[in-house]
Amino acid sequence: MLSSRDLSLVAIFAGVIAALGLVPAVSPFGGAVPITAQSMGIMLAGAILGARRGALSVLLFLALVAIGLPLLSGGRGGLGVFAGPSVGYLVGFPVAAFLVGLLTERVGRPYRVHLGVMANILGGVLALNVLGIIGMAAVLGVSLVKATTLAAVFMPGDVVKAVLTAVVAAGVHAAYPGLIPARREQPATPDRVSA
Amino acid sequence: MPEIRVASVSHSFGDGATRRPVLRDVDVTLTEHRIGVVGANGSGKSTFARLLNGLVHPDSGTVTVDGRDTVRDGREVRRRVGFCFTDPDAQIVMPTVAEDIAFGLRRRGLTKDEVRARTQGALTAYGLEGHADHPAHLLSGGQKQLLALASVLVTDPDLLVLDEPTTLLDLRNAEMVRRLVDGLSQQVVLVTHHLDLLDGFDRVLVFDDGRVVHDGTPADAVAAYRSLVAR
Amino acid sequence: MPVTAVPLYLPGASPVHRLGAGPKLLLLLATGVTLAVWRSPWQVAVALGAVLLLYAVARLPLRVLARQVVALAWVAVPLLAFQWVFASWRTGVGVVGSFVTLVLLAGLVTLTTRTTAMVDAVVRVCGWLRKFGVDPERVGLLLALGIRSVHVVLGLAQEVREAQHARGLRSSPRAFAVPLIVRSLRHADRLGEALSARGVDD
């Protein structure tokens, strides 16, 4: 059962993912090519809220997209996007957020940027691309090898975003502590968890 | 008027080295119609307000509203005690104006028609009838706070607690909220920095460092608060 | 310029408006399945024509449709070019056409269905999942909160932007994202408190 606080964190972070996709984070070339940070939003959900709430906020974000809000970067939305070539990435989003969150919780507080980068790359780049590539191959009717070649173009950018995500997550955890468990609290105290 | 009984309540935030007491042995009984609460930031007045509907459970002592304990009977207390917060944006939970008003009426055993009728009544009473289907984010700050109040008042609470409801509003909208609060027949506990809102109030508590340091008429309380600030 | 890319319900009294959310969502689902199977150029053209006809029946302003088409073009045109190069124009028209048709139909459902009705439909579907520990009422609340939160966070994003410009800061993803997320989390605290006060935890 989600508490009021969990509900509001999950809902607000779905809004954050949307905002990161809709508001250009950087506008090189005089704003002609806005680069948004939506895939960072997916990783940030896990890195900031942890596995369960992070994955739920990504699921909520996708549900909002599915009922017709154009919240994917570039203003895409509606059930139609689940018919497009990026369906594997969409399905992979909550999985990626969950994995990033799980790894981030394992590391615990205080947040370490280098470990965060590793969590983001494992969950937010590798796992996400595996699902994304399978989806792309299926929708476009191309081989997995060709789909991987297509996806490979974006991977250096994804790694940069994984690093940026960890830097952002470190900044957020410093300013707003308490969302991921502290390292010393972690080892087995199951009686306290249920309280 | 309901009897609000705050009995020997102490409360702290944080733990270990960061533990900070916010209420120290507060003991008051409030039965007046309109009660004001003033004090500096961090004096404990917002925590005091949150005791009254069980949003904050006291570390020690008890809080009862008309004999109902805010911890043990939290659900029943929250049905009878409406709460209005400072930030109108954070208390509007539904996407459109009418939906937000109707939200407070769910799980009260009302039929759809009754919910619709009461929602419509609240929209008219608070001057929002033209905005029923508008998304809440398109309202002005003052209209948002009106909506927040309408969403609470539609449930017809016995007591309304307001925590600095005018702090984020301009003068005109603050005046609108003041007139609305002045016209309420229910018991009101108003926490505020706007001292002129307390004209005509029956009783005003002054908080300082987690204690009630003055308890009296608005004129006395305001004077006491001013001397406290000047000190 | 404030970013509000969210087309909400446009009130109306057309037959499309009056049709229930459930049937509309079913139609959308059925169209999706159908177009995944049958997507030759003429089949897609028929589907697209039907969707455009529904827009006319719903008496939606033409600019609403135009806005959606423009937004779609950014994805559709490169996708069409890609298919043309790697497959054939027939595949291209099939994939892109069915994609555009579905997105426009989804847009139509959104534009003609009150958010409450949409959320109610999802909640009804979730009622079937009660056995698996899903609380339909929570799902409905979460969806409504999500819709509201998108607007709230977009507003916060605007504030962060303006604060940065006012202080003459160069925009970097970090300088934008950190304050945006911290403000959003603080907002979530206040929202959680308001939900508690309105009896959500009871």
Automatic annotation (TrEMBL), chain A:
Name of one Pfam family that matches: BioY
Listed transmembrane segments: 7-26, 32-49, 56-73, 79-103, 115-139, 159-176
InterPro entries in UniProt: BioY
Protein's membrane topology: Multi-pass membrane protein
A GO CC term assigned to this protein in UniProt: plasma membrane
Domain of life where this protein originates: Bacteria
Sample GO molecular function, one term: biotin transmembrane transporter activity
Localisation: Cell membrane
Keywords of the record: Cell membrane, Membrane, Transmembrane, Transmembrane helix, Transport
Coarse class of the protein's main subcellular location: membrane
Family: Belongs to the BioY family.
Listed name of the protein: Biotin transporter
From TrEMBL, chain B:
Keyword tags: ATP-binding, Nucleotide-binding, Transport
MF GO annotations: ATP binding; ATP hydrolysis activity; ATPase-coupled transmembrane transporter activity
Pfam family, one: ABC_tran
Statement: the UniProt record of this protein carries the keyword Transport: yes
Alphabetical list of Gene3D superfamilies matching this protein: P-loop containing nucleotide triphosphate hydrolases
Residue ranges annotated for the ABC transporter domain, each copy included: 4-231
Keyword check for Zinc: no
A GO CC term assigned to this protein in UniProt: ATP-binding cassette (ABC) transporter complex
Family: Belongs to the ABC transporter superfamily.
Protein name: Cobalt ABC transporter ATP-binding protein
Organism phylogeny: Bacteria, Bacillati, Actinomycetota, Actinomycetes, Micrococcales
TrEMBL record, chain C:
Membrane-traversing stretches: 42-62, 69-86, 92-111
Gene Ontology, cellular component aspect: plasma membrane
Main location: membrane
Subcellular location per the Swiss-Prot or TrEMBL entry: Membrane
Membrane topology annotation: Multi-pass membrane protein
Keywords from the UniProt entry: Membrane, Transmembrane, Transmembrane helix
Protein name in the entry: Cobalt ABC transporter
Biological source species: Knoellia flava
